[in-house]
Structures are given as structure tokens and as C-alpha cells.
């Protein structure tokens, strides 16, 4: 069976992309390959990482398009042209509209630095500290039209220490993100799944 083709979307350094690419290269994640890395920013560090690994890159700056619809349409066309199986959001800092999400149902994965459904949106680590929770973590989920509300694939729990600040908690959560994302991709690509309500279950 041919490897599933992944498109990774990122806006920055792409540490989750690097972790996934490393796991594929080391044989820890099989059954898939990264076909292209797409960014909305020419300066994204993850693009350089991709080029060094021989992975194709595409850049779609939002400012180059008159409307969000045109911008998303260009990305949709590029992804469809490559027959991509799954789209991996790895620090892509723009909210994708309904047209994009509905073009790839149950094929877009995202990672969020909290135990969803708690602390959706930006600054999830700060939200966790301000609320005073004892545990936080990360969640890999399918993307739907509702923000951070898609079916949950994998979660990792991280204790919140009494002396944590946003930086220290973010760092420990990111370590678990690098593990969780590859686990989630493996589940989706290699094991078969069904969606039951807000959860993804193995078949």
C-alpha cells in the first residue's frame, strides 16, 4: 500500500513538523510521508527545515490575495493537485474558513496546548495558569468549523507546578506535543478509526 501523503501547514519554526519528520525518517512513524510544507509567511523557519530535508515548500502570503476566499482557494487547489491525504496544522496561525475545512472533512488535524474542551483559542497555557488547574496538556483533534471543537484523537497530560509560569508550562507541554502528534498520525494512517461523538476510536 502506498504511503499516505501529508501536507504540513505552519507559520513559524515548525517544531512539531520537525518532530514528525524526524519520526518518519527514523522509522518510528510509518505509512506516510510529508509531501509538501505550506506556509503563509515567507520567513517561516519551518520552510528552511523542510528544504534541508528535500521536502517541497509552497508559500501563500495572505496579503497577496484580495479576499480570504481567494487565498484559501489557492491553497485548496495546491493541496488537491498533490492528492494529499491528510493536512497537518503545525503552528499555522490563521483560522481556516468553512470552505477550506469542508473541502477536507476528517482529513485536517490540529494540535492545541490544553486538554480540550478546556481553554480554547489563544494563550491556552496562560488561561490554565490563571484558572489554577493542577493539570494541563495537549490535544490532537480533527478540525471542524467550530474552533478547537473537533473530535479528539490523542491527549497528553502535563502537571502544572506551583512555580510554573507561561514559559515553563509551555515548554513541558510542547515536549508532549512532539510525542502526541506522531501518535495521532499513526492512529489515523495505520490503525483505522471511527468517530463517536467528540472522540476518535480505533476500529
TrEMBL record:
The keyword Transferase applies. The record marks 148 as: Raises pKa of active site His. Keywords: Purine biosynthesis, Transferase. One of its GO terms (cellular component) is cytoplasm. Transmembrane segments: none annotated. Its EC number is 2.1.2.2. It is an enzyme of class 2 (transferase). It comes from the Bacteria. One of its GO terms (biological process) is 'de novo' IMP biosynthetic process. The active site is at 112 (proton donor). (6R)-10-formyltetrahydrofolate binds at residues 68, 93-96, 110. GO terms for molecular function: phosphoribosylglycinamide formyltransferase activity. N(1)-(5-phospho-beta-D-ribosyl)glycinamide binds at residues 14-16. Pathway: Purine metabolism; IMP biosynthesis via de novo pathway; N(2)-formyl-N(1)-(5-phospho-D-ribosyl)glycinamide from N(1)-(5-phospho-D-ribosyl)glycinamide (10-formyl THF route): step 1/1. Belongs to the GART family. Catalyzes the transfer of a formyl group from 10-formyltetrahydrofolate to 5-phospho-ribosyl-glycinamide (GAR), producing 5-phospho-ribosyl-N-formylglycinamide (FGAR) and tetrahydrofolate. This is Phosphoribosylglycinamide formyltransferase. The lineage of its organism: Bacteria, Pseudomonadati, Chrysiogenota, Chrysiogenia, Chrysiogenales.
Amino acid at each position: 500500500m502506498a504511503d499516505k501523503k501529508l501536507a504540513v501547514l505552519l507559520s513559524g519554526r515548525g517544531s512539531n513538523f520537525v518532530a514528525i519528520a524526524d519520526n518518519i525518517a527514523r522509522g518510528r512513524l510509518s505509512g506516510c510521508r510529508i509531501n509538501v510544507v505550506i506556509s503563509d509567511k515567507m520567513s517561516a523557519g519551518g520552510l528552511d527545515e523542510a528544504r534541508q530535508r528535500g521536502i517541497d515548500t509552497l508559500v501563500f502570503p495572505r496579503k497577496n490575495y484580495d479576499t480570504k476566499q481567494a487565498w484559501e482557494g489557492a491553497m485548496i487547489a495546491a493541496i488537491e493537485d498533490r492528492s494529499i491525504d491528510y493536512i497537518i496544522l503545525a503552528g499555522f496561525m490563521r483560522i481556516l474558513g468553512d470552505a477550506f475545512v469542508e473541502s477536507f472533512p476528517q482529513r485536517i488535524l490540529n494540535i492545541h496546548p490544553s486538554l480540550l474542551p478546556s481553554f480554547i483559542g489563544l494563550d491556552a497555557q496562560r488561561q490554565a495558569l490563571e484558572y489554577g488547574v493542577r493539570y494541563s496538556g495537549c490535544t490532537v483533534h480533527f478540525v471542524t468549523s467550530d474552533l478547537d471543537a473537533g473530535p479528539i484523537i490523542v491527549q497528553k497530560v502535563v502537571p502544572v507546578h506551583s512555580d510554573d509560569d507561561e514559559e515553563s508550562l509551555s515548554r513541558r507541554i510542547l515536549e508532549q506535543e512532539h510525542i502526541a502528534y506522531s501518535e495521532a498520525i499513526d492512529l489515523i494512517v495505520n490503525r483505522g478509526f471511527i468517530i463517536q461523538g467528540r472522540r476518535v476510536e480505533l476500529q
